[in-house]
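Entry 12.
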Amino acid sequence: MSQQEEFFEYINNGYKTKGESIELGAAMLGEETITNAIVKVPLKTLNRHGLIAGATGTGKTKTLQVLAENLSEKGIPVLLMDIKGDLSGLAQPSPGHAKIDERHAKIGFEFTAQKFPIEVLTISEQDGTRLRATISEFGPVLLSRILDLTETQSGIVSIIFKYCDDNKYPLLDIKDFKKVLQFVTQEGKEEIQAEYGRISTASTGAILRKIVEIEQQGGDLFFGEKSFDVEDLTRIDEDGNGIISVLRLTDIQDKPKLFSTFMLQLLAEVYETFPEQGDSGRPELVIFIDEAHLVFEEASKALLNQIESIVKLIRSKGIGLYFVTQNPKDVPEDILAQLGLKIQHALRAFTAKDRKAIKLAAENYPDSEYYDTKEVLTQLGIGEAFVSVLNEKGIPTPLARTMLRAPMSRMDVLTPKELKSVINNSRLFYKYNETLDRESAYELLNSKIEKVNLAEAKAIKQEEERKERERLAKEKEKERKREERASKSYSRRRSTAQNPIVKVLTSATFIRAAFGILKKVLK
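Predicted 3D structure (C-alpha cells):
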C-alpha cells in the first residue's frame, strides 16, 4: 500500500461518523489534496466549542462562513459577530468561479451556490434589529465584574439593587443606575444609612466613573428596553434552515468594554434561559465570536473567571461557542483547553516572537507522523488549515492539513439596497426597534425628590408663617401692655392732680381761719 493510500485510509477511519456531520473539505498530504479524504465535524460534538485561528488574510472569515452555512442547512441556528462587515453576503448565493469548481473537484464533491436566511442585528447606531438588555437583567454580581469593581464597590452595587427591589424602582437603563447612585449619597443618604448602612461618596464616585466609561462607548444604546429575548436566536425558517443572526459590529473595535459587556451578558442570559439538553446529538445554537481578543484583552481576572465558568457550563444547554482570532494565545489557556474543534490557518514568522508563538500554537495539536506541524503552520495556503475535531466518542481526530471547501453564499458584503431589503423584511426589526422609556428608577426617584422638596418647601413656608404670626402676636401684646401702662400712668396723674377749690379748702390757712371763726361763734 502506498503512503497516499495509507493516508487516505488513516483520514477516513479517523473522521468516520455514524450520525450527521459537516464536511469541511479534504485532507492534504504535503501539497497534494487527497480527493474524497473528507474531513468532517460530527454535529454531536459541536457544543464542545472551538477555535478558528490564523494570520490576517488566510481565510478565517470564509471558514466561519462555511461552518455557518452548513449549520443553517442542517437546521441549526447561528449567531455571528461580524466585526469586519463581510458576512452579510450569506443572504445571497455565490456567483461561482472556475477556481471554486477546481477546488471542489480536488476535494471530491460538487460546488452548489446557495443563499441563507439571515437576521441583521446591531448594538450600536448601525441599521438592524436592536439588541438591548436592562441593568436589572445583569444583576449586581455580573455588573460588578464587568465594571471591575472592588469588593467594597461591589457591595454598594448590591445595596443599590436591593434598595430598588425593595422600593419597586425598575433599573432599566444607565440613567436609572446613575440616578440611584447619586441619590444614595445625596437626597436619600439618611434613608439608605438607616436601612442599609453608610455609603462612601468616594466609592460611588469610582463606580460612576466606570459607568460613564461604558456609556461613552455606546452603552446608552445597549442598556434599556425593549429587552431582546434570546429565544429569538433559535428560529428556523419555513424551509427548515436555521436562521443566521449576523450582529454588525464594524464600529465596535474601539469599544472593547461595550463588546465584552454585551458578550458576557448574552452568554449569561442564554445559560439562564435555555434548558438542560443532555445528549441530543445536535446543538441548539452555535455562536461565533470574531476578533475574540476584544472580549479578553481588557477583562479583569474576575471577568475571565466568569467567562471560563460559562464556557464550561453552557455546552450542557446545547450551545457551541467558537472563538475566531489571529493567534491561539489570544484566548486564555483555561478557556483554550475547553475547545474541542480547532481550525488553524497559516501563521507568519516575521520575528523571534512570532516563531515562539508558532511553536506554542503547534503544541495545541495532536502529534502526526505525516506533518511537521510547526513547519507546515507557516506554509499553509489561503483556504487551507490544520483541523482537529472531537469524534463522536469525544476523542481527538487525526490532525489533517485540509483544503477547505468554498462558501456557497457570496464572499462579499450586501449592497446598501440588499441590506435594507433584508432589514425591512425582518419580523424582529419591528418587534425590537421601538424605543421604550417607561417609568423607572430615574423618573420615580425624581418624583420622590420633587415631593420631598415640595413638602420641605411647604414646611418651611408654614414655619415662616407661624413665626410671623408669633411676631405679630408679640408686637400686639407689647402694644397692649404699652397702652395699659399708659392708661395706669394717666390714672395716677389724674388722681394726684387736685381741684383748685379743694386745694384752697384743704389748705392750712383756710382751716385755721375756719377754726378761728368757729371758736368765736361758740363763745
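Annotation: The first helix runs from residue 3 to 14. The chain has a mean pLDDT of 85.
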